[in-house]
Amino acid sequence: MKTEYWKIDPYAPLEPQLADAASVLAHGGLVAFPTETVYGLGADATDAAAASRIYAAKGRPSDNPLIVHIAHPADAGRYAVTGELYERLSSAFMPGPLTVVMPRRGCIPLSVTGGLDSVGIRCPENRIARTLICLAGVPVAAPSANLSGRPSPTSARHVRADLDGKIDGILDGGDCTVGLESTVVKLCGDRVTVLRPGAVTPEMLREVCPHVTLDAGVTEKLPEGVAPQAPGMKYRHYAPRARVVLIRDAGHGDFDRRAVLFLEQRLREEPAVGILCFDEYGPYLHGKNVMTFGKKQDDAEHARRLFDCLRRFDETDAPEIYAVAGAPDGLGLALYNRMLKAAGYTVLDL
Ligand code: AMP
Ligand code: MG
């Protein structure tokens, strides 16, 4: 199949630029589009056949549910059983990088929810995404627009590398501003469980709802046979082809010095080793596959660049990649979660 490519001019009116893509969606086709988190691969969420094309194009396991994207937070009630807690969360964080899992209504087919009786609803903030959903006139089911298992795409170039020839079209709206997938929360009574951390942090959620807990799968490998509440979290994810080792601060003090010494030593033994580290380490680490992804304290910059760096390692001959983790709080928790999964839970405590 030939994949249409639409480059969006952010300074020109959006509607005419999105009309063709919206029509493809309304007629059961697949369109990749930018959001503030990552690029999504969209299809009509009320059309079971369209949704199944998403799974086929991505090679996604059929039990991994799709998030349903809406143009206005108030539309959620058509597709899910909302309540007072949804109202509170949506007025605080929507439009924005938050997905809320609630009981599903019948117009959303089971093939969209991976067979579950719940559905994840999100209203993206990105102008292109919201205008596209409005014009299509349907809710848009969209997982990240990557091949299953690969790092999520944060630019149209990433989408093209994975899905060219497999989908109807790609809207190029530039780089994603957040760079990590949405926070996924599940509501139960007056309780919020974070199934996947993102840019809406547990600290932010606690300002709106007193009962916020983290699903165990966020920071730990679950024991064999225990399924995480978000089915997608059980798969190896965000992973470049080479083995990744996460370097973590064990709290012995002087972490940066220990990390730099360790990495210098590894570079002496194996000059092609891949390293993903903070800008501050750059002057000490000389190797062709050393990448820096922002200053140590700048989680937002790490978030924007993480997936692009993981993809770029695939274009190198790095036999192994060491990735340095920052503190797992605030947005850092989401980064830590993605890096831990990219590493398949292989951690070196220094
Ligand atoms: P993706 O859109 O590729 O970032 O993946 C969507 C994520 O949201 C996956 O981890 C899913 O498991 C999770 N998710 C979506 N809908 C639900 C649901 N109804 N219940 C639990 N998790 C969900
Ligand atoms: Mg994904």
Structural account:
This protein folds into two domains: 4-218, Alpha-Beta Complex (DHBP synthase), CATH 3.90.870.10; 243-349, Rossmann fold, CATH 3.40.50.11030. The protein is globular and about 60 Å long. The chain has helices at 14-26, 48-58, 76-79, 84-93, 127-136, 156-163, 202-206, 255-269, 299-313, 331-342; strands at residues 4-7, 31-33, 40-44, 67-69, 98-103, 118-122, 140-141, 169-172, 183-188, 191-196, 211-214, 243-248, 274-277, 290-292, 320-324, 347-349. Helix 9 runs parallel beside helix 10 (331-342). The protein is of the alpha/beta class and 350 residues long. It is built from ten helices and 16 strands. The chain is 29% helix and 20% strand. Strands 1-8-2-3-7-4-6-5-9-10-11 form an eleven-stranded mixed β-sheet, sandwiched between helices. Strands 14-13-15-12-16 form a five-stranded parallel β-sheet, covered by helices on one side. Residues 143-144, 152 line the site of magnesium ion.
- Element order: H for helix, E for strand: EHEEHEHHEEHEHEEEHEEHEEHEHE
> Do you know the CATH topology of the largest domain?
DHBP synthase
CATH architecture label of the largest domain: Alpha-Beta Complex
The named CATH superfamily of the largest domain: DHBP synthase
Indicate the CATH class of the largest domain. Alpha Beta
Unreliable spans: none
The Rg value, from CA coordinates, equals: 20 Å
Tell me what portion of residues adopts beta-strand conformation.
15-25%
Enumerate the distinct ligands: adenosine monophosphate, magnesium ion
Please give the domain count: 2
Could you tell me the mean pLDDT?
95
Classification by helices and strands: alpha/beta
